[in-house]
């Protein structure tokens, strides 16, 4: 109550909106004697009816009930909310009591494996996140719990193999414990390492409370700073622009000075090349292109009959011809020639125009008649 979040030692978990919410955690020595009020607000999802409840937690010191021997177990087949159930936690403490046999045994801390850097399990085969449970007792550890510290079991743990623990069967029926992650703490042998802080170099003295400046501060005019910030870069840019304009515009040599420094023979040669290039471009615009030879009629080599091209319809009108031929053949003549043996040979002539120039050309010699 009065804070934006829960205390640092208190956690809350709720798997689904329709499952029970669980508040759990272990306070530290700094919270002893300070009552903690948890303000709980809930509303009905259907009617939006709101309810509020205050939960008061009184934290007392555990020095009156010292538990110097502490053991932390990692249970693989449990989630934290399942372990917090009173009957499940009671069964686990009963199994530990049978192995340890202390006079007083209490659960000190319960933490989810995800809060220790564990990974979220895959949603297959009903896998669990795992939970760490720390218990404390007033008697030293039993021989069964000490078996984890044997060199043989430590070697098996380093090879990712399960150690051999004689009392594991007392937990196996309900709890699957990872014995390689068990931690045994004996606070009777721990030496206090607390050292009083001595202020010296590197530690600033307490300066008291922060005092903000008063409202009577004089206003400052930033107009001059603004002008200086804009005027100086603008002046530098203007000077650079003027220098560049003088170099590009006022110091040009010009075409006449270039021609005066160029030899005459080189100018004549350059002019002749330009003139020839211009004439070739003008001629290329007015040239006439004849039909290609592949589009001309073909005569049968034996009978001399006219044969049309094979794929006359496939030609596009956009193709430019290389040669032109006359469709009307008024100058075609057939001159039979008599041989000495009485046979005749038929020779066919036809006039063509190649690029507008008439030409007589012998096309075919027929077979012997």
UniProtKB/TrEMBL annotation:
Designated name of the protein: Epsilon-sarcoglycan isoform X18
The organism's place on the tree of life at top rank: Eukaryota
UniProt feature coiled coil, ranges: none
Occurrences of domain Sarcoglycan alpha/epsilon N-terminal (ranges): 1-61
Membrane spanning stretches: 226-249
PANTHER family documented for this protein: ALPHA-/EPSILON-SARCOGLYCAN FAMILY MEMBER (PTHR10132), EPSILON-SARCOGLYCAN (PTHR10132:SF17)
Protein's gene: SGCE
This protein's UniProt keywords: Membrane, Transmembrane, Transmembrane helix
